[in-house]
């Protein structure tokens, strides 16, 4: 039990048709942790700069996240600025400021190196590879990335993909990485790069999972309150991987449940800015919404 997540802890500035927020607590590891914590203990590996507000550290600690390997270095915290318009499915990145991320090399404790469940959330693939090299005997390793890294560090990303079990991508990332426009073909290509399980997320249109044991398709939970989708993918991954870590095994049945939990967790994320909604969640909120969801999808 327990999951180690490597990723970004960021200060996000986000503009959606519902408003603008400056320097919100965000980042792939923060969003992932907020849903994974509902299933298992989460140990977070990331870097922040001198400008990172203490209140955000207190907030993450208060949610039960282990911050032993949240390094603080001199320099600026990673900052991301994005904008959404139209159907809110795709973020337009306005600015990415790497700050302390540019030189970060994660240092793990001996206990962290022995974690069985690991998630390499969206971050520089060189850092993902560095962390992978420090791990001993992990059994389930997942990885997420994004266009920024696909375009700037493709070789390094392909190297990391060879060593992981699960790859989580959105439809555009899957197309960019493989050159395939058809998502079924893209999933096949991605599996040939290494991961035995590939998930392709399609925003409000749901998710598609391809593994040896099964192919699964699931629509998104139909919410009419989409305020800010930032972190929806990471929140999905947190619910998905958190559940698998708790279940302790990967098979068709656990994968099916895991994509349901990921989908439900992500549906809460989009209903508020930043971590507003997911930080207030208890496991029972997921269970309640899952019961409603099951009624919608029963055929
Ligand atoms: P998502 O909406 O699931 O793709 O995740 C958005 C989160 O990823 C935001 O909180 C950002 O801080 C973070 N993010 C944006 N760009 C990057 C990047 N190049 N590397 C790592 N994290 C990023």
Cα-to-Cα separation, first versus last residue: 34 Å
Beta content comes to: 15-25%
Using only C-alpha atoms, the radius of gyration works out to 17 Å
**Which CATH C-level class is it?**
Alpha Beta
Domains counted in the coordinates: how many?
Answer: 1
Largest sheet, order of strands side by side?
A: 5-4-1-8-9-10-11-12-13
How do the SSEs run, as a string of H and E?
EEEHEHEEEHEHEHHEHHEEEHHH
Query: What is the helix tally?
Result: 11
The chain-level structural class is: alpha/beta
State the CATH superfamily name.
Ribokinase
Largest sheet properties: 9 strands, mixed
Inertia-based shape: globular
General description of the model:
The chain is α/β, with parallel strands linked by helices. The chain has a single domain (about 5-85, about 90-295), classed as 3-Layer(aba) Sandwich (UDP-N-acetylmuramoyl-L-alanine:D-glutamate ligase). It is about 40% helix and about 25% strand. The strands form two sheets. A nine-stranded mixed beta sheet has the order 5-4-1-8-9-10-11-12-13, with helices on both faces. A four-stranded mixed beta sheet has the order 3-2-6-7. Helix 1 (about 30-35) crosses helix 9. The longest helix is centred in the C-terminal third of the chain and has 18 residues, at about 250-270. The protein is globular and about 55 Å long. The mean pLDDT is about 95. Bound molecules: adenosine monophosphate.
């Amino acid at each position: 039990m327990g999951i180690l997540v490597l990723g970004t802890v960021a200060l996000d500035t986000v503009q959606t048709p519902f408003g603008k927020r400056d320097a919100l607590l965000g980042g792939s590891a923060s969003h992932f942790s907020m849903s994974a914590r509902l299933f298992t203990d989460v140990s977070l590996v990331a870097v922040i700069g001198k400008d990172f507000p203490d209140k955000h550290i207190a907030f993450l600690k208060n949610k039960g996240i282990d911050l032993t390997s949240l390094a603080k270095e001199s320099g600026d915290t990673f900052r991301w600025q994005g904008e959404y318009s139209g159907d809110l499915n795709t973020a337009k990145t306005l600015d990415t400021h790497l700050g302390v991320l540019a030189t970060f090399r994660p240092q793990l404790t001996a206990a962290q190196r022995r974690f069985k469940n690991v998630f390499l959330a969206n971050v520089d693939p060189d850092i993902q590879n560095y962390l992978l090299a420090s791990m001993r005997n992990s059994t389930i390793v997942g990885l997420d990335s994004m266009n920024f890294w696909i375009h700037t560090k493709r070789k390094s990303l392909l190297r990391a993909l060879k060593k992981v079990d699960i790859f989580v991508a959105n439809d555009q990332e899957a197309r960019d990485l493989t050159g395939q426009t058809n998502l079924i073909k893209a999933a096949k290509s991605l599996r040939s790069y290494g991961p035995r399980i590939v998930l392709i997320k399609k925003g409000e249109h749901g998710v598609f999972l391809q593994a040896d044991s099964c192919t699964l398709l699931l629509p998104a939970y139909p919410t009419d309150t989409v305020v800010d989708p930032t972190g929806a993918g990471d929140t999905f991954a947190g619910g998905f991987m958190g559940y698998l870590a708790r279940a302790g095994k990967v098979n068709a049945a656990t994968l099916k449940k895991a994509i349901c939990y990921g989908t439900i967790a992500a549906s809460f994320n989009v209903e508020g800015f930043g971590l507003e909604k997911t930080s207030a969640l208890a496991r029972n909120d997921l269970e309640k919404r899952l019961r409603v969801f099951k009624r919608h999808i029963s055929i």
